[in-house]
Specification:
Number of helices: 18
Low-confidence stretches: 1-50, 87-101, 378-391, 404-430
CATH superfamily of one domain: UbiA prenyltransferase
CATH architecture of one domain: Orthogonal Bundle
CATH topology of one domain: Tetracycline Repressor, domain 2
Bound molecules: farnesyl diphosphate
Strand content: under 5%
Length: 430
């Protein structure tokens, strides 16, 4: 078996098809990469197909081969971008393997889009701005993920979860993957710089560097990598906010903070479920130094609790209505319960439950933020006349809330004390 590029195979197929109507695919030198192309373009080569005039047979071969090539590389780019993040682990039942996956890049884009909408403040969401932000984030994240896979070929080849990725399986060459990463990253950064602003583009570029050049090597050096990875995952909503408002304010930190804390139980569960795989890959995850899972679960549980105040902060800082406090508190208590159960029992089953809870947590949390975000149509003209920016609007709401609360009798706080997420009752009429 020797390796040739799909393009050379493409040309060899052309020469074969011009000499014979039914080239025998076995004569073509295959590599794994080429097999993928051939599988896709097999039908036109089948000896069962009816004989056609030479010229049309040639044309259909060219089209089929080009389509096969396009499909093959589109799939490689898709996988290099980590469009799907999957883990495989033993279930407790009959030692069967179970594969779970999540649409990773869509998750990154969703967090950035949510950040954009929140950063829009009181103004109507600029749909083209939102699309540019999502597209730019997606391209930079695709580039970061491709670079991560280029740097981890030998590690990925040793792990069941990752050995079928395009680089370790030999479906794409390193220079080709590198070119894809450079083009995707540069296009994404240019898109953000030209269509949104330099703050967003700078955050995207800095995050790419943090992920590919700091987090990726750190995975093989020290368990602290998980915390650095959590920072990487927290940046996209900040990028989205900056793309919408042109700045980073304290308010813009709420969703990134949630993402940071959320990633710890998410990544801890993944590291525990795949600990033997991570060990074979040569990665230094906390779970490898914690066979009982107690420390891993404790870290996850602690970070779930850190998320509890976020709903109240979002309300207090004028980002959402008080409903979000209730939802966010219930949600964080639910994920904390799965972390506590993992802490108590330390089983794979409980770790998997925590992982699934973490998958559910984020979309529900972000939907809650969007549904209950404070959006006051009447306030907009006032803000515009006053020359205030969109992100300044939530600061105005926050100041108004503080003034209102300061005018309330102390008893109002006492009555609300057991339920800090509920707004304090008012004892005066304006
Ligand atoms: C805008 C921009 C640059 C966004 C980047 C978003 C991004 C790539 C977040 C990654 C978060 C993270 C630590 C994932 C795990 O990677 P891993 O390397 O541990 O996963 P693996 O084991 O599956 O390779």
């Amino acid at each position: 078996m020797w390796r040739r590029s799909p393009l050379s195979r493409f040309s060899s197929r052309l020469s074969l098809s011009s000499s014979s109507s039914f080239p025998n695919p076995i004569l073509i030198p295959w590599s794994r990469e080429l097999c993928a192309v051939n599988n896709f373009s097999q039908p036109p080569l089948s000896p069962q197909s009816s004989p056609k005039p030479a010229i049309s047979g040639e044309a259909s071969s060219i089209i089929a081969a080009a389509a096969g090539l396009g499909h093959h590389y589109a799939r490689c780019y898709w996988e290099l971008s980590k469009a799907r993040l999957s883990y495989e682990s033993n279930t407790n039942f009959n030692d069967k393997k179970q594969t779970n996956s999540t649409n990773f890049i869509l998750h990154v884009v969703a967090t950035s889009g949510t950040g954009y909408i929140l950063g829009t403040g009181n103004a109507a969401v600029n749909l083209s701005g939102l699309c540019y932000t999502c597209a730019g984030t997606m391209m930079i994240a695709a580039s970061a993920n491709s670079l991560n896979q280029i740097f981890e070929i030998s590690n990925d080849a040793k792990m069941k979860r990752t050995m079928r990725r395009p680089l370790p399986s030999g479906r794409i060459s390193v220079p080709h993957a590198g070119a894809w990463a450079v083009i995707a990253g540069a296009s994404g950064a240019c898109l953000l710089a030209t269509k949104t602003n330099m703050v967003a583009a700078g955050l995207g570029a800095a995050n790419l560097v943090l992920y590919a050049f700091v987090y990726t090597p750190l995975k093989q050096l020290h368990p602290v990598n998980t915390w650095v990875g959590a920072v990487v995952g927290a940046i996209p909503p900040l990028l989205g906010w900056a793309a919408a408002s042109g700045q980073i304010s304290l308010n813009s930190m709420i969703l990134p903070a949630a993402l940071y804390f959320w990633q710890i139980p998410h990544l801890m569960a993944l590291a525990h479920l795949c600990h033997s795989d991570y060990a074979s890959g040569g990665y230094k995850m906390l779970s490898l130094f914690d066979p009982t899972g107690k420390r891993t679960a404790a870290v996850a549980l602690r970070n779930c609790f850190y998320m509890v105040p976020l709903g109240f902060i979002a309300y207090d800082w004028g980002l959402t209505s008080s409903w979000f406090c209730i939802e966010s508190t219930l949600l964080t208590m639910a994920i904390a319960a799965t972390a506590f159960s993992f802490y108590r029992h330390g089983t794979m089953e409980k770790a998997r439950k925590m992982f699934h809870a973490s998958l559910l947590f984020l979309p529900v949390f972000m939907s809650g933020l969007l549904i209950h975000r404070v959006y006051d149509d009447n306030q907009q003209p006032v803000l515009e006349v006053a020359g205030l920016s969109n992100s300044a609007s939530s600061e105005v709401i926050q100041t108004q809330r503080r003034k209102k609360r300061a005018a309330q009798a102390p008893v109002a706080y006492a009555s609300a004390a057991p339920f800090p997420f509920l707004p304090a009752p008012s004892f005066y009429s304006p």
